[in-house]
Amino acid sequence: MSTERFHTMKAVELRTGLSAHLIRVWERRYGAVTPARSGTQRRLYTEAEVERLHLLAQLSQLGLAIGQIAGLGTEQLRGILGRGTGPKGRAEGPGGAPGEAVEAALEAIRGYDMLGLEEVLDRGMIALGYAGLLEKVLVPLLHAIGTSWAAGELTAGQEHGATAALKDYLARNLRSMQLPGTAPRLLVTTPAGQLHEMGAAIAAGLARKAGWNVIYLGASLPAEEIVSAAVKNQIRALALSIIYPGDDPELPGQLRRLRRLLPEAIPILVGGQAAEAYGETLREIGAHLLVGLEAFPKMLEALRSGPSGGA
Looking at CB atoms within 10 Å, which of 11, 108, 187, 288 has the fewest? Predict the structure, then answer.
């Protein structure tokens, strides 16, 4: 076997713009290429395989899911790229399609590779920015983790490890955003009984990015504790995340009590996948129900530009 006809993983990374981690994911899960091995078990790629990976990389940047195209022949891939179109999708920005980042993150989680997971998130942040990482990678990843765990495709250990790693990643990035003391203050938490705090952690990151000083209190706080922290910290607004369950009989009472005790001037912003299940109560107490991640920073901007903005 002539080594002149083969390329190392490092060379393939440079030629295609793909990371070694993602290339291995595409090989194992989708059979995109089948490289040879050296005597020391290092991957070796033919020129045809390098071209194929480059084509797949270009098409994934156009928004095509790797699962849709990995089984196609090289000529078919060239044809699709030549047309510049394909099944639903457009480029999501430099650095690759967010869907591939989610798949790479899941692969790292399956292997208990939390450093690999962090690398995937770092690449996503470079390519998409902080807000783009949260909206296009982290939120879909959380849904995928939940679905995979429910289907038995992830163990409890893998799910717990991923959750801990993601919380730590968000916390470290949150601490790195320094803001002046004059920035408006936002308290972020989940009400009593809501134990899933990733939505709140994401909201805290978005708020800090939008220029708010964030007091983040974690998950499942009773109304009295939330109000105490709100008053002591002189917050401008309160943000609550409601993820699961969507049928807690105690939660409407907690929300009503929160509104009664909280100073009237402090608005309550509520989001999360189960928030709409409590829509009637939220309307009753005058809370702002935010549907979709993009609605949150828009509401924060509206509050800052309002009569008491910046207070």
Answer: 11
